[in-house]
## 1
Amino acid sequence: MCRNSRQPASAAAPPEGLVASCAELGSPYYTVDFVELADGGWVVIEMGDGQVSGLTAAQDAVTYYHIMTDMLEGGVRRG
């Protein structure tokens, strides 16, 4: 899970229960956008298959593509 590229590190993370509810969607790769409401609640505003999503500024592209390669080949995740 990665923050939006314009989101400060101090921004609250979505509740673990909400994240967990989106963890098993039957797809090996997808994106989920969470938003915190003004009243402190959280909702999912968008889900997609990840085709058009780019990497966030905080993600290391080389590590990301190594992990993707390993997962697609059925291997073990690299650290």
## 2
Amino acid sequence: MTSSNRPADTPAGAPVPSPIRVAVLGARGRMGSAAVRAVEAADDLELVAAIGSDDDRETAREAGAQVVIDLTVPAVTKDNVLWAIDAGMHAVVGATGWDESSLGEVRDALEGAPGLGVLIAPNFAIGAVLAMRFAETAARFYESAEIVELHHPDKVDAPSGTAKHTAAAIARGRAEGDLGPVPDATQKDPDGSRGAVVDGVHVHAVRLRGLVAHEEILFGGTGEQLTIRHDSFDRVSFMPGVLLGVREVASHPGLTVGLEHYLGL
């Protein structure tokens, strides 16, 4: 895969001038429409294409977009990112459903596109990113850890990307603390009431009308419990992170998974 279709005035690896030309994929969805408004309101960004599911994504390339924000769905997000790389555009991605195989394809594509950056963020809310970081720090001190993630019922995947990213952070913290498996004496659970197990951590997914995106990270030790909770009540809470990603992605060539790497965490 090559980047021969890169806009002529933006060679790979060069700083992206202001205003940054931005295209939004998934522009008619809840997150996408919020991103469109946020980009339009930013003085240093220029919205050049707002692309819905029925639109031709080539509009972004033709408009000279330098950064593509992908807020689509798991079924199409990988193809969108590979297309963006081939077109010579940086990508900031909020769609979930990524696995190691898909991430590997993106890394391989980026090897042929030096200077291009792709950010895949399980969560763009600054508070959610901090909660994950705090969880990794706390994990080494507590014998027990579980995650409850709560979202609106229109979310298509479970557990959430945020919960999986948090579980991975907890697993790293437990390894640093030389902790063994989380204690759990359950022997019978035919209905799966103990939830999924991600990186050795039980994750419970709640889907309720009225919710947006919420996470509780529970730690237990003898005689105490620590709860770290983050709540997004409106999708506007994700926009500072989205805009940070757009502004910084050109300065982070290659694949980055997690907004924390752009926050110095």
